């Protein structure tokens, strides 16, 4: 998609010029002629296309924003979401060149949000469709009138990273395996001249990553550990580690999922897909931090060699885990990955995982969980989430009685504490494998990683939720 900030920069004919309106916005001259249609124009979420018989565009569009939010960040979220709806609707009408006028002069934050919305609204995963029942048009040209071009470019890169992650997460288990994930990581590292380490199933065992290995050994496809390193051109401002859950398909193992529960389990690799999308974007964004991207890729299958309930496994840091539920496999793989990452001594660790069904029960389908005892890290991540337009709710791990749910007389810790308080007990389990001196936060995106209908800036399928927040956090010295 090509972006402009003045209509004259685009030499062809624009298909549509859109006007966003708050409740108290004056009607622009171009749409005032149609004011008899304006009863609902300013209502939040309203979107109407008006054909033009004459002039430089084929269509005008009016986009209602409702009451103007007091906070600048809420305005940018609204602009992002409604731009996505504008593009999504326009492409169903076979439109490919768009212009947008905001009700105020866009600053850098708003420009970036609009660019993200335009790219994300353009997204549909149709790779495997052989019939063309979806729109044939894609938004090829987008003009944000008076927009900040540098910020627009940043927003484009962020949204393209999200689409990259969505595409990977939407790929089915017969296409993406642990081996494929490692190959994709190597391709990114080669393209951007990053350092990369990939451990095979033998090296994983030799290094004592037995929790990761046990989860993956029930599949005919062996596990892989991937460790990528991005380094900025200058002196890095710090060292941040991102750890993604990468279960390329989760059958539940011997505790096999139900017919309904097993659907969409191709998306249990979403955390690692987000990490790959982020690592792929860092060079273009000129991230000022040294960033380590890690994941342990496995397939959780009920083979005769699969790990079992009651098994006791030793993780890399020496702690033992009693398996209560083979469908609580993500935290077992992350145990080793967090222990491995702790040896790198980063300034902070953030893990991203489709971890618990309890997150859905606690938060619904539009808010992710954020679990951490580190106040400063949480504050920075929540500030980044506000700018990114992603909702998180923080959980703290200070309930000693809840911690007892993952006690077991047979090992240091059990891998499941039952459904009650499941987001927190999962975080408590993971905490056992993180160096206590390293600031660490766990993002549980299980409630928000997949949508079965389009809305706001989300299409059908994988959402790549948390990716924008992580990029905001990593780019905070540069993004305004």
UniProtKB/TrEMBL annotation:
<feature type="domain" description="Cytosol aminopeptidase">
    <location>
        <begin position="325"/>
        <end position="332"/>
    </location>
</feature>
<comment type="function">
    <text>Presumably involved in the processing and regular turnover of intracellular proteins. Catalyzes the removal of unsubstituted N-terminal amino acids from various peptides.</text>
</comment>
<dbReference type="InterPro" id="IPR008283">
    <property type="entry name" value="Peptidase_M17_N"/>
</dbReference>
<feature type="binding site">
    <location>
        <position position="327"/>
    </location>
    <ligand>
        <name>Mn(2+) 1</name>
    </ligand>
</feature>
<comment type="similarity">
    <text>Belongs to the peptidase M17 family.</text>
</comment>
<dbReference type="GO" id="GO:0005737">
    <property type="term" value="C:cytoplasm"/>
</dbReference>
<keyword id="KW-0464">Manganese</keyword>
<feature type="binding site">
    <location>
        <position position="250"/>
    </location>
    <ligand>
        <name>Mn(2+) 2</name>
    </ligand>
</feature>
<dbReference type="GO" id="GO:0030145">
    <property type="term" value="F:manganese ion binding"/>
</dbReference>
<dbReference type="InterPro" id="IPR043472">
    <property type="entry name" value="Macro_dom-like"/>
</dbReference>
<feature type="binding site">
    <location>
        <position position="245"/>
    </location>
    <ligand>
        <name>Mn(2+) 2</name>
    </ligand>
</feature>
<keyword id="KW-0378">Hydrolase</keyword>
<feature type="active site">
    <location>
        <position position="257"/>
    </location>
</feature>
<dbReference type="GO" id="GO:0070006">
    <property type="term" value="F:metalloaminopeptidase activity"/>
</dbReference>
<dbReference type="InterPro" id="IPR000819">
    <property type="entry name" value="Peptidase_M17_C"/>
</dbReference>
<feature type="binding site">
    <location>
        <position position="329"/>
    </location>
    <ligand>
        <name>Mn(2+) 1</name>
    </ligand>
</feature>
<keyword id="KW-0645">Protease</keyword>
<keyword id="KW-0963">Cytoplasm</keyword>
<keyword id="KW-0479">Metal-binding</keyword>
<feature type="binding site">
    <location>
        <position position="329"/>
    </location>
    <ligand>
        <name>Mn(2+) 2</name>
    </ligand>
</feature>
<feature type="binding site">
    <location>
        <position position="250"/>
    </location>
    <ligand>
        <name>Mn(2+) 1</name>
    </ligand>
</feature>
<dbReference type="GO" id="GO:0006508">
    <property type="term" value="P:proteolysis"/>
</dbReference>
<dbReference type="Pfam" id="PF00883">
    <property type="entry name" value="Peptidase_M17"/>
</dbReference>
<dbReference type="InterPro" id="IPR011356">
    <property type="entry name" value="Leucine_aapep/pepB"/>
</dbReference>
<keyword id="KW-0031">Aminopeptidase</keyword>
<feature type="binding site">
    <location>
        <position position="268"/>
    </location>
    <ligand>
        <name>Mn(2+) 2</name>
    </ligand>
</feature>
<protein>
    <recommendedName>
        <fullName>Probable cytosol aminopeptidase</fullName>
        <ecNumber>3.4.11.1</ecNumber>
        <ecNumber>3.4.11.10</ecNumber>
    </recommendedName>
</protein>
<dbReference type="InterPro" id="IPR023042">
    <property type="entry name" value="Peptidase_M17_leu_NH2_pept"/>
</dbReference>
<dbReference type="Pfam" id="PF02789">
    <property type="entry name" value="Peptidase_M17_N"/>
</dbReference>
<feature type="active site">
    <location>
        <position position="331"/>
    </location>
</feature>
